[in-house]
Write a structure and sequence with these properties.
GO terms for molecular function: alcohol dehydrogenase (NAD+) activity; S-(hydroxymethyl)glutathione dehydrogenase [NAD(P)+] activity; zinc ion binding. This protein is an alpha/beta fold and 376 residues long. The protein has twelve helices and 18 strands. It has a domain of 129 residues: Rossmann fold.
């Protein structure tokens, strides 16, 4: 019998229905099929998108029950037929954004939006239309095709990055979503220039990573914007030169920033996922050349834009996974961390076991954590 032919029984934090706390359950994880890899998840970050899907309003409806989690790192346990780039024991980071390397989008330098298995993974199943996780005889959907709140999971071989063997998985797991998204919003999508002025809206993990990106790019002024002043000290660690709390001002924050910067910032990065804040970020940029990048995630919101503000020379763009080509760029980001060019440890405020996952959600929502890393 081949090594990949057995079912694995393990623990997972299961979402049985929307709005209810996760339940730790015994689940079964099937062997990988063609072009699939089964991985042992070692560590997973708890991202706001996970919380938003369970409790919020800003996500499209996906089927339940499901296992959340999409920012993780682990070790290959077994590989399915026709997998050539991975072997048991490899350290890996699963990717909600694939990179097949063959499609028109992968071959274009303009985008990282590969669509391999995309429609299926968005609704929680793999290439054949089924999930590899089950509980009590019932199929359990895989959030974004990943499900890292499970001790084992199965992902397509085009949705997996092989990383160096000396990388600490409980740190580099953050490169599976939040840090890569915010950092890339500044250095890839925004293309922040030296000596420029920047405003970063929202100082969670994505926002702090955007601050870090602005600093690495050589920005002169980096203004952090958040209604939680407890985040300001941490923002300074990542390179913020000053911070502003919109609640401290009677005027709209875009007017405050315009006054602070003689007409507006060169770059604004929205890292909250709130359409009203997106509008404020856009309007905080300088006319003639101001650039606003939307990194905050919402699937249902509508943003208001005054057309004249675009006509006067501002640009508005979105970023997904920070513009990184996932399979090829995530290992390079791991290298940058190992070579001390990129901060990761400073994002981690809490470390908890899987059975404390609901505590991690509470910390996230209360604003008391930046990133909690769950050990499985």
């Amino acid at each position: 019998m081949e090594a990949y032919a057995r079912v694995i029984k393990c623990k997972a934090a299961l979402a049985w229905e929307p709005g209810k706390p996760l339940a730790i359950e015994d689940v079964e994880v099937d062997p990988p099929k063609v072009h699939e890899v089964r991985i042992k998840i070692v560590a997973t970050g708890v991202c706001h998108t996970d919380w938003e899907y369970l409790y919020g309003q800003g996500m499209k409806v996906r089927p339940f029950p499901l296992v959340l989690g999409h920012e993780a790192a682990g070790v290959v346990e077994s590989v399915g037929p026709e997998v050539t780039k991975f072997s048991p024991g490899d350290k890996v980071i699963p990717l909600f954004l694939p990179q097949c390397g063959e499609c028109e989008r992968c071959l274009s330098p303009k985008t990282n939006h590969c669509r391999k298995n995309w429609a299926n993974m968005q609704v929680g199943v793999l290439a054949d239309g089924t999930s590899r996780i089950s509980c009590k005889g019932q199929q359990v959907y895989q959030f974004l095709g990943i499900s890292s709140f499970c001790q084992y999971t199965v992902v397509p071989d085009t949705s997996l990055a092989k990383i160096r063997c000396d990388a600490p998985l409980d740190k580099v797991c953050l490169l599976g979503c939040g840090v890569s998204t915010g950092y890339g919003a500044a250095v890839n999508t925004g293309k922040v220039k030296k000596q420029s002025s920047c405003a970063v809206f929202g100082l969670g993990a994505v926002g702090l990573a955007a601050v870090m990106g602005c600093q690495v790019a050589g920005a002169k002024r980096i203004i952090g914007v958040d209604i939680n002043p407890d985040k300001f000290e941490k923002a300074a660690v990542f390179g913020a030169t000053e911070c502003v709390n919109p609640k401290d001002h009677k005027k709209p924050i875009q007017e405050v920033l315009a006054e602070m910067t003689d007409g507006g910032v060169d770059y604004a990065l929205e890292c909250v996922g709130d359409p009203a804040i997106m509008t404020a970020a856009f309007e905080s940029t300088k006319d003639a050349w101001g650039s606003c990048v939307i990194a905050g995630w919402t699937e249902t919101g509508m943003m208001n834009v005054v057309v004249e503000k675009i006509l006067m020379g501002r640009t508005l763009s979105g970023t997904y996974f920070g513009g990184w080509k996932s399979v090829e760029d995530v290992p390079k980001l791991v290298d940058d961390y190992m070579n001390k060019k990129l901060k990761l440890d400073e994002f981690i405020t809490h470390n908890l076991p899987l059975d404390q996952i609901n505590v991690a959600f509470g910390l996230l929502k209360s604003g008391n954590s930046i990133r909690t890393v769950i050990s499985l």
